[in-house]
C-alpha cells in the first residue's frame, strides 16, 4: 500500500498537468471557433464598406482557415509540441501534396487571377466555352453560376480562365440586330420606312449611337434588310422581343411579304432535249 500510495503521489502532478493542458486546449478550441465565426461575419460586412462582392468569399475562406491554423498551433504549443519542427514538416508535406495536386493548385492560381483582373463580377452574365450563366460566387477552387434555365453550375477556375470570356452585362449598352426579309418584288424603300417607324415608336432605343439601316444581302429567295440599334443592357431582350413581335404586322400593313424559300425548276420536253443534245454533239 505504501508503494501504491507513493506511485499515486508521483502520478498526481502529471495527471493534473495533463488535465489542465486538456482544459486549456478545449478552451483554445472554443475561442478559435468563436473567433472564426466573428472573422467570417466581419469579412462579410466588408461589402458595406465598398469592397467588391466577388472578393468576399475568397477573403472569408482565407481568414477563417487562417484562424483555425493559429488555433491549432496554440493547442499544439499547450501540449509542448515543437511547433518550429512541425512547421518545417508541414512545409515539406505541403510541397509533396502540391506536386500531387497540381491541378487543384492551378484552380487556386486561376481563382486569384480572376479576382485580380476582374473580367467579371458577382451578378454579371458571362459565357466561357458553351456555358452561359450569371456569376454567383468565385471561390478558391470553383466559380458558381446560375444558367438562364435555372441550373447551378460549379466550374473549376482554371477552366473558366482558360476559355475566352464574354461578359454580356459589363457595358452599359448593347447593339440589337434585326433582319427583315422581303420579296424581290417588294419596294426596298418601303421596307426601310417600316424599320424606321419601328425605331421611332420604341422609346427605349438609344439615339446615340445612331440606328443604322442597310440592305444586308440579296439572298436566294429574299432581300434582307438590316436594322442595327442600341439599347441599355438591362433592357436588351425586352426591346428585341418587342421589335420582333411588331415587325411582321408592320410589314404586312405596308403590303410587303416575307417570302418562303423558293426554287425555279425548268422542265425540258423530249424534243427540245434531243435538239439540245444534237447541238452539243455538233459543237464537239
Automatic annotation (TrEMBL):
<dbReference type="Pfam" id="PF00924">
    <property type="entry name" value="MS_channel_2nd"/>
</dbReference>
<comment type="subunit">
    <text>Homoheptamer.</text>
</comment>
<comment type="function">
    <text>Mechanosensitive channel that participates in the regulation of osmotic pressure changes within the cell, opening in response to stretch forces in the membrane lipid bilayer, without the need for other proteins. Contributes to normal resistance to hypoosmotic shock. Forms an ion channel of 1.0 nanosiemens conductance with a slight preference for anions.</text>
</comment>
<dbReference type="InterPro" id="IPR023408">
    <property type="entry name" value="MscS_beta-dom_sf"/>
</dbReference>
<dbReference type="InterPro" id="IPR010920">
    <property type="entry name" value="LSM_dom_sf"/>
</dbReference>
<keyword id="KW-1133">Transmembrane helix</keyword>
<dbReference type="InterPro" id="IPR045275">
    <property type="entry name" value="MscS_archaea/bacteria_type"/>
</dbReference>
<dbReference type="InterPro" id="IPR006685">
    <property type="entry name" value="MscS_channel_2nd"/>
</dbReference>
<keyword id="KW-0813">Transport</keyword>
<dbReference type="Pfam" id="PF21082">
    <property type="entry name" value="MS_channel_3rd"/>
</dbReference>
<dbReference type="InterPro" id="IPR011066">
    <property type="entry name" value="MscS_channel_C_sf"/>
</dbReference>
<feature type="domain" description="Mechanosensitive ion channel MscS C-terminal">
    <location>
        <begin position="177"/>
        <end position="257"/>
    </location>
</feature>
<dbReference type="Pfam" id="PF21088">
    <property type="entry name" value="MS_channel_1st"/>
</dbReference>
<comment type="similarity">
    <text>Belongs to the MscS (TC 1.A.23) family.</text>
</comment>
<protein>
    <recommendedName>
        <fullName>Small-conductance mechanosensitive channel</fullName>
    </recommendedName>
</protein>
<keyword id="KW-0472">Membrane</keyword>
<feature type="transmembrane region" description="Helical">
    <location>
        <begin position="57"/>
        <end position="80"/>
    </location>
</feature>
<dbReference type="InterPro" id="IPR049278">
    <property type="entry name" value="MS_channel_C"/>
</dbReference>
<keyword id="KW-0406">Ion transport</keyword>
<keyword id="KW-0997">Cell inner membrane</keyword>
<feature type="transmembrane region" description="Helical">
    <location>
        <begin position="12"/>
        <end position="36"/>
    </location>
</feature>
<keyword id="KW-1003">Cell membrane</keyword>
<keyword id="KW-0407">Ion channel</keyword>
<dbReference type="InterPro" id="IPR049142">
    <property type="entry name" value="MS_channel_1st"/>
</dbReference>
<dbReference type="InterPro" id="IPR011014">
    <property type="entry name" value="MscS_channel_TM-2"/>
</dbReference>
<dbReference type="GO" id="GO:0005886">
    <property type="term" value="C:plasma membrane"/>
</dbReference>
<dbReference type="GO" id="GO:0008381">
    <property type="term" value="F:mechanosensitive monoatomic ion channel activity"/>
</dbReference>
<feature type="domain" description="Mechanosensitive ion channel MscS">
    <location>
        <begin position="104"/>
        <end position="170"/>
    </location>
</feature>
<feature type="transmembrane region" description="Helical">
    <location>
        <begin position="86"/>
        <end position="117"/>
    </location>
</feature>
<keyword id="KW-0812">Transmembrane</keyword>
<feature type="domain" description="Mechanosensitive ion channel transmembrane helices 2/3">
    <location>
        <begin position="66"/>
        <end position="102"/>
    </location>
</feature>
